[in-house]
Design a protein that fits this description.
This protein is of the alpha+beta class and about 525 residues long. It has helices spanning about 15-25, 30-45, 70-80, 80-95, 105, 145-150, 155-160, 170-180, 190-200, 205-220, 235-245, 250-255, 260-270, 275-280, 280-290, 290-305, 355-360, 370-405, 410-415, 425-430, 435-440, 475-485, 495-505, 510-520, 525-530, and strands spanning about 45-50, 325-330, 335-340, 350, 445-450, 450-455, 465, 470-475.
């Protein structure tokens, strides 16, 4: 093999650490950015949050010791609480044939510790005292806001009701076990035999005994509130609620649900659930031996039942969306325009620690301290890079948001029906950025508009052809479909075919399959399920 040297010219993109950090910060959401900033503040001593000091108010502590004019003091004593106190004490003294003189000096002779200074923390007035707590768990340090946010679980609700039942130790333990075996919807997913096998193993005698106790406990569980809890499937859950209606003989219950209707509904629940889901009236009439009107009334009654008894006990995590960009309407009439600005609440105020930076600048990194000096210099440079990349991130978000608002002016004036088609390439070409950069900016970033808060990706959508030769945004088409369905006659709901024809009358070429896709995306049921019985 012959060896040789050759020259070759090529170009390649080298991602420096600064560029990699800039790309990573750009795709982070607001919450992730806050966590990133907190981590960087913990790791880098040269980085700190800038605290803009709030100006002191004129009526604050600085004015607490200001002398009061004598005429003002006399007028306050003559018409204020001190005068009322003097009048009341004088009337009491006269009734007791005693003289109790009152003066301004007596009104200010309060018992205290003798100090005349006003402490900023007001500790003299018991600021360190803990509030009285009446929580049941004995946690005296629990915050009031945490107690307010706490929500009783389904298991706790059932355990509290079980305390009122007089049960043997075995039945009470079996009931507790079944309660803890419920899922979030209140259903018992495993059979009693499966639950018993998990405890008894291969012991047949113990298995039979456990199944017996679980059977008794299941009957007790079905008697607890909410009605339907402990059911093994949807059919049993609905049947339990209907049986509870039958057991109620009050006038209110009979007026809400006639007994004949409840009985027909019970027979419907014993049939396959897919017949009820499809609202197959004819088939249910045959199987239940009931008239058309009775079946329709029974289906309407079933529609008012709760298919998931444990739903109201589920502690749903509520995610609050904090917008990154605010759009505010400025001006009125023809001169009105929309101003785009960043949300100051999500912008971290960072700066380089001046004291540490100056100390490092004055230090001569020589000798044995050269390695430590170089490491600190690297940390200082990282802090400066981080601040610059944070600023660049928000500048890019502002530029992209401004371009979106300019392209979607009709939306901010008339709503989603006026949304126009928009793709990432249009914004990328306008700002001189890459499509991937626009995609990172518009992901998990939100904009507060007069019509609500939306993700930046919401303003992008494909276009559908129109008779005029233009394009209609898919978002506008969805809004139009939603508007058609909202105005439909529930006796004769609009099918996907009819919606497609109505869109064609508006000049929008939209196939039936596309209408079905948009309708499912809006979580709107089919025409047969929307029909009013």
């Amino acid at each position: 093999m012959k060896q040789g040297l050759s020259l070759r010219v090529s170009q390649h993109l080298a991602l420096t650490p600064q560029l990699q950090q800039s790309i990573r910060l750009l795709q982070l959401s607001t919450l992730e950015l806050s966590q990133e900033v907190g981590q960087m503040l913990d790791e880098n001593p040269f980085l700190e949050l800038s605290s803009d000091e709030v100006p002191r108010e004129e009526f604050g502590l600085a004015q607490a010791d200001a002398p009061v004019a004598r005429d003002v003091l006399e007028s306050e004593l003559a018409s204020g609480p001190a005068a009322d106190y003097a009048t009341s004490t004088s009337s009491v003294a006269e009734s007791d044939n005693e003289v109790m003189p009152f003066s301004a000096d007596d009104g200010q002779s309060w018992d205290g510790d003798g100090t005349v200074e006003m402490a900023p923390d007001d500790s003299e007035w018991g600021g360190d005292a803990k509030p009285s707590s009446n929580n049941l768990n004995g946690n005296e340090d629990a915050d009031a806001s945490e107690l307010a946010r706490s929500q009783e679980s389904l298991q706790s609700h059932l355990h509290r009701q079980a305390l009122a039942l007089r049960l043997s130790e075995e039945d009470s333990a079996a009931l507790r076990f079944l309660i803890e075996s419920l899922n979030d919807d209140g259903y018992l997913e495993d059979t009693l035999t499966e639950l018993a096998q998990g405890l008894a193993g291969t012991d047949e005698e113990q298995l039979d005994e456990l199944v017996h106790h679980f059977t008794v406990a299941l009957f007790l569980l079905h008697s607890l509130e909410p009605v339907g809890v402990g059911a093994r499937d949807l059919s049993e859950c609905l049947s339990l609620q209907l049986k509870a209606l039958l057991a109620q003989r009050s006038a209110e219950a009979s007026s809400l649900a006639p007994l004949a209707t409840v009985r027909v509904a019970l027979r419907i629940c014993t049939q396959p659930m897919d017949l009820l889901a499809r609202r197959d009236i004819k088939r249910l009439m045959q199987l239940c031996a009931a008239s058309d009107a009775a079946v329709r009334e029974a289906i309407a009654l079933i529609g008012h039942l709760e298919p998931k008894p444990g739903r109201r006990f589920v502690d749903v995590e509520r995610n609050i969306v904090v917008p990154d960009v605010l759009v505010v309407k400025v001006g009125k009439g023809a001169s009105a325009r929309f101003q785009v600005r960043l949300n100051p609440e999500v912008m971290p105020r960072l700066r380089v620690h001046d004291i540490y930076a100056n100390a490092l600048r004055q230090h001569k990194g020589g000798g044995s301290d050269a390695a430590s000096y170089a490491a600190l210099q690297q940390r200082l440079q990282e802090a400066r890079w981080f601040i610059k990349n944070i600023q660049q991130r928000f500048d890019t978000i502002l530029r992209v948001s401004t371009a979106i608002v300019e392209r979607q002016k009709s939306f901010f004036t008339h709503g989603e029906l006026a949304m126009r088609p928009l793709v990432l390439r249009e914004i990328a070409d306008e700002l001189g950025l890459h499509e991937s950069t626009i995609s990172r900016v518009t992901t998990a970033k939100y904009m507060a508009t007069p019509f609500g808060t939306f993700e930046l990706k919401y303003f992008f959508g494909s276009g559908l052809g129109t008779d005029s030769g233009g394009n209609a945004s898919s978002t506008a088409v969805r809004a139009l479909i939603k508007q058609f369905i909202a105005a439909e006659d529930l006796k004769k709901p609009l099918s996907d075919n009819q919606l497609s024809e109505m869109l064609k009358e508006q000049g929008i070429d939209c196939a039936r399959r596309t209408v079905a896709k948009y309708r499912e995306g809006l979580r709107i049921a089919t025409a047969s399920l929307r029909k009013d019985l």
